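hiii, so i know i said id send this last week but things got crazy w the move. better late than never?? heres the sequnce for the chain we talked about at the cafe, plus the structure i predicted for it. fair warning i was half asleep when i ran it
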Amino acid sequence: MAPKPEETFSPTGVLYENDEVIITEKIPEKSTTTTGKQEIIWSNLIIQIVIHIFALWGLVRIFTSAKLTTTIYGFIIYEISMMGTMAGVHRLWAHRTYKAKLPLKLLLAVFATLAAQKSIIDWARDHRVHHRYSDTDADPHNAKRGFFYAHFGWQFMKKHPEVIKKGTSVDFSDLFADPILSFQHKHYWLLQFTSYLLPAFIPMLLWNETFFNGFCINWLRYELGIHSTFSINSFSHLMGHKPYDKYIGPTENLFVSIISHGEGWHNYHHTFPWDYRAGEKGQWNPALYFINFFAKIGWAYDLKKANAGSVENRLKKTGDGSRQ
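okay and structure toks below
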């Protein structure tokens, strides 16, 4: 067993191991609210309003005219698309917390495409910038600007100049070097269009559902996935406890963990971003169970996790005392 690395904590809450910075979380400067205006992208706003109308219509259709099979099918598509985002785009590609063999990479890429939450490269790129400049103007969804902006408003506005400027300092070369990610990124708009329509046709073709029911329920599962994911940016940066590091914005939020497949243990995740578990043992974490299953059959390997000593040290030195 390798000797436990020496750990020290800087005044800004950055964790060092053997003088190597392994966490880029910093306490934001005093002024973290934006001083300039960001241009609204009206087309994005209008499109989302329309999609939300269809999604609400889908919710009505579940209780009025849709077949039970269609509802179950929509739930399954929601589940696999969320797993593509959380276990794939987030833990595999954005953070490189584990490695995956080709079959699992392809599976997760298909699942992530169904989620339609940007291309994998764009999603992972924004997320890496978010971690390095969390809760500052360089954060794509800066929670210091309020709940709505962090949750959804950032999608309707052009990126803050600081996001663009500081984003150039983050390395994304590994993402573009991956042929699967490059292909998905290059053809994303066509693939995204397919993810919007193909799941709507399947109920009609296989069990004689109406196209409109399939169409609306597909938008419903899409919006549920979007809001479940974005709740990490909003709820988990504004509400909850900070047992591992009280000096950063992210919090532990059980509600978010339930709806986002285990991603709401956000204070832990921002403290130990390389840990494939994104939380501690015993916490609700479906994305962890998914990865562990594929690790057992050999498709996932080199799973990284924080050692127990590191976690205990953080609890004692920088935690808020909420985790006893």
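btw The longest strand covers residues 7-9. thought thatd interest u
miss u guys!!
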